[in-house]
Amino acid sequence: MTGIVPGTVIVTGARAPVALDIARSFRALGWAVHLADSVPAMAARWSRPAFAVHRLPPPRTAFAAFRTALARLVEATGAALIVPTCEEVFYIAAAAPAVRVFAPPPDLLRRLHSKALFADVARAAGVTMPDTHAIDDPAALAALPLDRIVLKPEFSRFAAAALIRPSPRTVARLRPSPTHRWVAQAFVAGEELCLWTAAHAGRVTAHALYRPAWRHGRSAAYAFDAVDWPPAIDMARRIAGATGATGHLSFDLIRTPDGAAVPIECNPRAVSGVHLFDGTALALAILGETVPPPAPGTRRHLAPAMALLGAPAALAGGRWRALRDQWHAGRDAITRPGDRWPAAGALVDAARFAALGLTRRRSPTRQTTADIEWNGGPIA
Questions:
Q1: Any stretches that span the bilayer, and where are they (predicted)?
Q2: How far apart are CA 354 and CA 368, in angstroms?
Q3: How far apart are CA 114 and CA 20, in angstroms?
Q4: Which of 13, 128, 171, 221 is the most exposed place for a label (fewest CB within 10 A)?
């Protein structure tokens, strides 16, 4: 390990459990850590020993105020680095703060986040992609082979709006346009895996490949099993190398029956694979050191979600023993010995998102990103 002089880091997206993991890792490395978000982020606020947690304006609706507040926070803390974790990354990159940011530049972020443009990025890196094309006219939907495709908005998250081999009636309700494009992608059969990587100037410094063991519908998982499969890591290295990216590069991919690693989309933000690391590994990787991946079979879960979502699903589906085994074989990613209050904070955060979503006719999942998500429009 090369000599790293501890400094001050700002970790944004404090609402996300992955932000708390990254904050703890930097603290373990001796850095002064500040967390920031545009929501209260009680899980982060209730962690002990306490982190400084700062409230920023919502970047999606008040970008100018967000940019000013972020610059002031950097100046006040003397931060040497900003580590975004969620979709605020797009707004931080656009704000261009006078400090190093662990993220690609705006143009590359757009190409990675776009479900249409990412296919071109992957192919240019020599990675096999399913046939993928954008649709901006409802008339184009009629010619699609619906039994062999997946439809999703060009800019979307959590697979919340993905339509897998949809019915004609479902497709008839879609209204793609030049400003709200949909993407048609050939359906790829196989096992779904997820991959988080940290990249530095095109070099992968950490990776965690995992199986989403328990999830809410097709949305984000709340229990994760680490797996080892070199073709997936090779795919990520090709894309990182071809783009020269620095930042989080996360992928949803399919392990096909013939052993190919086929990415279906990229998320240039932190994802649940972060939970599979311990100690200083995350901070070191973000700072450019190469660290080993989590051991295959490593299990983590989000205890509040396992209780609130997993238990009812297990009871309804006759999988109680599987849930119990997952719980006992793994470790909660939110709490640590002597630091149990973040689990309660996570419940408060979830209740707040659910209540706000109810008043605004959004699902709780959609509400979690309502103030930070970016859907391809201009940032100003």
A1: none
A2: 9
A3: 27
A4: 128
